[in-house]
Design goal:
- The chain is an alpha/beta fold.
- About 40% of the residues lie in helices and about 15% in strands.
- It is built from 13 helices and twelve strands.
Amino acid sequence: MSEDFYRIRRLPPYVFAEVNAMKAAARAAGEDIIDLGMGNPDGAPAPHVIEKLAEVARDPAAHGYSASKGIKGLRKAQAGYYQRRFGVDLDPENEVVVTLGSKEGLANLAQAITAPGDVVLAPNPSYPIHTFGFIIAGAAIRSIPAAPGPDFFRRLEHAVAYTVPKPKVLVIGYPSNPTAYVADLEFYTKVVEFAKEHGLWVLSDLAYAEIYFGDTPTPSILQVPGAKDVAIEFTSMSKTYSMAGWRIGFAVGNRQLIGALTRVKSYLDYGAFTPIQAAAVAALNGPQDIVEQNRQLYKRRRDVLVESFGRAGWEIPPPEASMFAWAPIPPALQHLGAMEFSKQLLTHAQVAVAPGVGFGEEGEGFVRIALVENEHRIRQAARNIKRYLQSMGINTPGSSEPTRKAG
C-alpha cells in the first residue's frame, strides 16, 4: 500500500534527517562529533528533585493512572510560580493544565481549536511545532516575522486585512527558538490589543523564560492587563530545571483554551507518571538555586562560543537569551546554503549544527548552535572550525594568506 495518509502528506521531508544520519554514521565510524545541533540539556535536576521522585516511586499507590490535567499540587505550584515571577494570578483549577512538555501541549491545543482550512499566523523561522502542530490539524499557515520589531505589526496588519478566511490564531514565542529574539512588555501589550481588535487567539511559547543574560527578566504576556481574555502561555521545566527527559510542561491562561486543551487531553492520555509530577512540585516549590546556576552556565557557554568562534573567523551575534545562537553563515560561504554548510561542518570540522532552513524558509543563510556542550568542547569546536575555514581559503585571525579560493 502507498503511504498517502492525509496528515502525513501534509508534512514535508524532515530537514534535519539527512544531517542526523550523517552524524550517526560519523560516530559509528569512531569520529568524535561535537554536537551543537540538538537543544538537549546536558545537566541533571537538583538532588532534592531526584530524591522526591525516588521517595514517591517507592509508594505502591503511586503507580496507577494519573489525572491527565495534572495533580492538583503541581497545578497549584505552577500558579505559585506565576505569582512570584510575574505577579500574575492563576486559578489552578481552571487556568492551569499540566502537559507532557510544552510541545505536546501546543500540538494538542492545535487539535482542539483548529478546523480544516483555518488560517494560523506563525513566525518564520520558528520552532517546528508552532507550524506543524497546526498543519497536522488541518490549518493553513501564514508566515509573520520572527523578530518583534515594527515590521512584525505591519505584516500582522497586512495578514489580517488580506487573508481569507480571516486568521484565527497567532503563535508567538520569546525568547525564541531558533533565533533567540526577545520581547518586552510593550510588545506584548500591542499583541494583546491587536488580538482583541481582530478576534485572534494568542499562543505564547515561554519555554526559555528563565534563560536570559541581561538584567531584565523575561516578561510573560499574561502580565498585560486583560491578556487572559485572548492568550494562553506554555512553559516547560526542561531547560529551567534540567528536566528535559521528564516531559513536564504547563499551559496557563485563558479558561476557554485551557478547557479545550484539558478536554482533548482527557481522551488522549492519563498524564505524566505521578512520582514525576510530585518531583516537579518539589522543583517549583523548593530551593531555586539551579535556575540561577543554569542561567549562568548558558551565559558562560555563550560568551565562550562568541569569543572562540570569533577568533576562529566566524562572527556570532551574542544572543540575549535562550540556549541557542542564531548564526549567519560566514559571508564567503553563504553560497553553500544552510544544509550544505551544516554537512561540511560535520564532515570537515566534526561539529554538528542545525541548518536554519529546518525552521522555515526564512532560516536560509543561518544555522542554529545549541549551547549544550561544555566550554572545553566549545573551544575544541572553534579550533576545528578554524581549520575548516582555512582549508576553504578563508582568512582567519592570525592565519597566513589563503592557499586557494573559497568555494
